[in-house]
Amino acid sequence: MKKHEFRALVDLFMVSDPWPLDKAGEVILKAFADEEAKRWGFSNWIEAYMRLSYAPEPPSRKGENKMRKIWKYKIPALTDPFNFGGVFEIEMPVGARIVALQSQRGSAAMWAEVDVDAEREPRKFVVVGTGGQQIPERWIYIGTAQIGPFMIHVYEMR
Question: What is the pLDDT of residues 79-107, one digit of tens each?
């Protein structure tokens, strides 16, 4: 299985609530995903989901040994939970690589690995609801989080 195929599989697991198959099918597929995760060097499929990213790797600078940090970026609250499609912009260091999207204390946040010394650039994101608006091919999936009873899906607009 190729890395992008595996990422699609674990993405499917994360958004499949309730599980669409019977319990036996769930157990079999998640065991397969755990085995595949170990092949890629992760302890299980959940860790693989958290650590794999569609974002391109930041360019490396030969000869430099720069230190990176993880920074948290809050996702603006939705004023109307039924009105998805909210676009927001965040200033991030150039080359920042988003590594996770989760809910935390009732709101959503993204975490990114950043070079703290890099120049900043604005990046645009959009919140999409399940079964909602169409998603252009050029948008990059960041992640899914549950906020109260709602599932939100965040994409970077490119």
Answer: 455 555 688 899 999 999 999 999 888 88
In a domain, 60, yes or no: no
How many domains does one find in the chain?
A: 2
CA distance 146 to 34: 23
Instruction: Tell me the two tokens of residue 15.
Output: 């958004």
pTM of the model: 0.56
- What does the chain come to in residues? 158
pLDDT band at 57 (very low <50, low <70, confident <90, very high): low
Q: How far apart are CA 154 and CA 145, in angstroms?
A: 8
Going by their DSSP bridges, the two strands 107-114 and 69-74 should be labelled as antiparallel
Cα 41 from chain centroid (whole Å) = 19
Largest CA distance in the chain: 53
Contact 57, 99 (CB under 8 A): no
Q: Among all chains, which residue has been given the structure tokens 């669409």?
A: 20
pLDDT band for 123, please (50, 70, 90 cuts): very high
- Say yes or no: 29 and 97 in one domain: no
Residue 8's domain spans which residues? Answer: 3-51
Is residue 86 domain-shared with residue 129, that is, in the same domain? yes
Q: Tell me the HSE value of 75 on the side-chain side, using a 13 A CA sphere.
A: 36
Does any domain span residue 64? no
